[in-house]
Design goal:
The complex is a heterodimer.
Chain A: H1 6-42, H2 47-61, H3 65-84, H4 91-117, H5 121-129, H6 134-164, H7 176-187, H8 190-220
Helix pairs in contact in A: 1-2, 1-4, 1-6, 1-7, 2-4, 3-4, 4-6, 5-6, 6-8, 7-8
Chain B: E1 2-11, E2 14-24, E3 29-33, H1 40-47, E4 55-60, E5 63-64, H2 72-77, E6 79-82, H3 94-104, H4 110-123, H5 139-151, E7 157-161, H6 169-184, E8 188-192, H7 196-202, E9 205-210, E10 213-218, H8 220-225, H9 230-240
Helix pairs in contact in B: 3-4, 3-5, 4-5, 5-6
Classes of the chains: A mainly alpha, B alpha/beta.
Chain lengths: ~220, ~240
C-alpha cells in the first residue's frame, strides 16, 4: 500500500467533492420543495390530484435510482427539445440534478406528509378560525411546525442522498468518487485512492449521522 | 346576530344535530350546556363552519354560513373562537400568536398590531409574558392568550368551546374572570361550558341540549331553580351531586 500520491492529488479530489456537494445541496433544496408540493397534493381532498401524487411517489419509489439517472441523461434533452422546439445542450450535471430532484422528491414527500400529519388538527382549526386561507395556514402554522419535527428525518435522507450522488459515475460526471477513481488509475494506486475515498465518505456520513442523532435527542425533550 | 334555522348534521348514521333552532342577539351571552355527546361542541363549531352542516341554515351577522358563495375566511375573521385545548401556535411567541392574523389576514401594520396585542395582553393580565412561548405558560395563561388572540381580530362574536374543561381546577377562575369582563364589555358570546357558576352569574340565557336537540332554554335563575325538562333536571342533579 502506498498512499504517497494522495496529498498531491488533493486539489483535483477537492474539485470532485465540490461537484458532489453542489449536486447535493441543489438536489436537497429541489427535492424538499417538490416533495412538499407532492405531500400537499397527496393530502388534498381532490381525488385526482392526490391520486396523481400517489402514483408519482409509488412509481419513483419502485424503480432504481441508477435507472432514473441514466434514463434522464437521455430524456431531459429530448423533453426540453420537445418543449422549446430547439436543441438545447443540458449537460450531464443538469440532467443528473433533475433526476435526483424528481427521485428524492418521492422520498421527501413521505417524510413531509408524515410531518404534517403529526401536527394536531387543532392547529389548522385555530388557523382557520381566525380567517386564514388554506395556503396561509400551511405556510404560517403547519409547515413551520412540521419541518421542525421532520428535521432529523430530512437530514437522514440527505445523508443517504450524499452517498447516492456517487451514482453520477454512470453518466461520466466527475464527482468525488469518480475523481478518486480516475486519479488512482492515473497514479497506479487504484486501491489506495478508493480506500481513501471510502474513508472520506465514511467520516462525513457517520459524523453527520451522529450529529443528527444528537439533534434528535435535543428536539425530543 | 346568530340564527340557527332547523339545522341538521349527521356523522354517518349518527344524527348529531337534530333540528337546532336558536337565536343569539347582539350583546347577548348564551351558555350552552348538556351531557357529553349531546352535540353542543359540534353545534358551536358549525357557527364558523369548522364543522359543516347537512341541512338548514345558520346566519351570522346577516350572512348564511352554509352558502358556498359566502366568503368563509372573511366571516371567520369576524368570529372569535376559543378552543378547549387552546391551540396556541407553539412555534411562535405569545406576542406573535396574537399579531399573526391581524397582520396576515387583515393587513394591519406590525407596529399597530404589536401595540394592540400588548393592550390585549394587559387586559387578560399577561403583558409580562409577551415574549414567552406557549409551552412556558400554564394552561390558564395559555387560554387567556388564546382569548386575546381571538379578540385581536376585533370580532363581533366570540365563541367558546369548553374553554375551561382542559384546565386544572385552580386555573379555571382566572379564565372565567376574563370571560366575565368580556361579557360585561358588551361582547356577544356563545359559550359551551359545564361551569354552572359562570352560567348563573354571567349568562343572559342558558340553552340545554340533549341528543342534538335543544330541549330547554331559559334565563339562568329560572333554569337552575326550576328546570322543566326531565333530562335537564337529571343533568343538574348530576352536576351538583356527582357521587349520588
Amino acid at each position: 500500500m502506498d498512499f504517497s500520491q494522495i496529498i498531491p492529488s488533493l486539489p483535483s479530489l477537492w474539485d470532485g467533492m465540490k461537484l458532489t456537494l453542489q449536486l447535493l445541496v441543489l438536489a436537497v433544496a429541489g427535492g424538499i420543495a417538490l416533495g412538499t408540493v407532492l405531500a400537499l397534493a397527496r393530502m388534498s381532498s381532490n381525488a385526482m390530484l392526490s391520486g396523481l401524487a400517489k402514483a408519482y411517489v409509488n412509481y419513483f419509489r419502485s424503480i432504481p435510482l441508477l435507472l432514473v439517472i441514466t434514463w434522464f441523461y437521455l430524456a431531459v434533452p429530448m423533453i426540453l427539445n420537445w418543449i422549446t422546439g430547439e436543441f438545447v445542450a443540458v449537460g450531464a450535471f443538469t440532467s443528473c440534478l433533475v433526476a435526483f430532484v424528481m427521485f428524492e422528491a418521492a422520498y421527501y414527500c413521505e417524510i413531509v406528509r408524515a410531518g404534517i400529519q403529526s401536527i394536531s388538527k387543532g392547529q389548522i382549526n385555530a388557523a382557520y378560525a381566525v380567517g386564514m386561507t388554506y395556503s396561509q395556514a400551511m405556510r404560517l402554522i403547519i409547515l413551520p411546525q412540521a419541518f421542525r419535527k421532520m428535521t432529523p428525518l430530512l437530514l437522514q435522507q440527505t445523508i443517504i442522498l450524499f452517498q447516492d450522488t456517487s451514482l453520477v459515475y454512470a453518466v461520466g460526471l466527475i464527482d468525488f468518487l469518480n475523481a478518486a477513481r480516475a486519479r488512482g488509475d492515473i497514479m497506479g494506486q487504484s486501491h489506495e485512492f478508493l480506500i481513501f475515498a471510502g474513508a472520506v465518505y465514511f467520516v462525513i456520513s457517520f459524523g453527520a449521522s451522529s450529529l443528527v442523532k444528537r439533534l434528535q435527542k435535543r428536539l425530543a425533550v | 346576530m346568530i340564527r340557527f334555522n332547523n339545522v341538521h348534521k349527521w356523522f354517518k348514521d349518527l344524527h348529531v344535530l337534530n333540528g337546532i333552532d336558536l337565536q343569539v342577539a347582539q350583546g347577548e351571552v348564551v351558555v350552552v350546556c348538556g351531557p357529553s355527546g349531546s352535540g353542543k361542541s359540534t353545534m358551536i363549531r358549525t357557527v364558523n363552519q369548522l364543522e359543516s352542516i347537512n341541512e338548514g341554515e345558520i346566519w351570522v351577522d346577516g350572512k348564511n354560513v352554509a352558502d358556498p358563495k359566502t366568503d368563509l375566511n372573511a366571516l371567520r375573521a369576524e368570529v372569535g373562537f376559543v378552543f378547549q385545548h387552546f391551540n396556541l401556535y407553539p412555534h411562535l411567541s405569545v406576542l406573535d400568536n396574537i399579531t399573526l392574523s391581524p397582520i396576515k389576514v387583515k393587513g394591519m401594520d406590525k407596529a399597530a398590531a404589536d401595540k394592540q396585542a400588548v393592550a390585549l395582553l394587559e387586559r387578560v393580565g399577561l403583558a409580562h409574558k409577551k415574549d414567552a412561548f406557549p409551552a412556558q405558560l400554564s394552561g390558564g395563561q395559555q387560554q387567556r392568550v388564546a382569548i386575546a388572540r381571538g379578540l385581536a381580530m376585533e370580532p363581533r362574536v366570540m365563541l367558546f368551546d369548553e374553554p375551561t374543561s382542559a384546565l386544572d381546577p385552580e386555573m379555571i377562575g382566572e379564565v372565567l374572570k376574563v370571560m366575565k369582563d368580556l361579557a360585561e364589555s358588551g361582547m356577544t358570546m356563545m359559550v359551551v361550558t359545564h361551569e354552572m357558576g359562570f352560567a348563573r352569574e354571567v349568562a343572559d340565557r342558558v340553552v340545554f341540549i340533549d341528543h342534538g336537540k335543544i330541549v330547554e332554554q331559559a334565563p339562568p335563575e329560572e333554569f337552575f331553580k326550576n328546570p322543566q325538562h326531565e333530562r335537564a333536571q337529571q343533568f343538574l342533579r348530576q352536576l351538583l351531586t356527582p357521587m349520588s
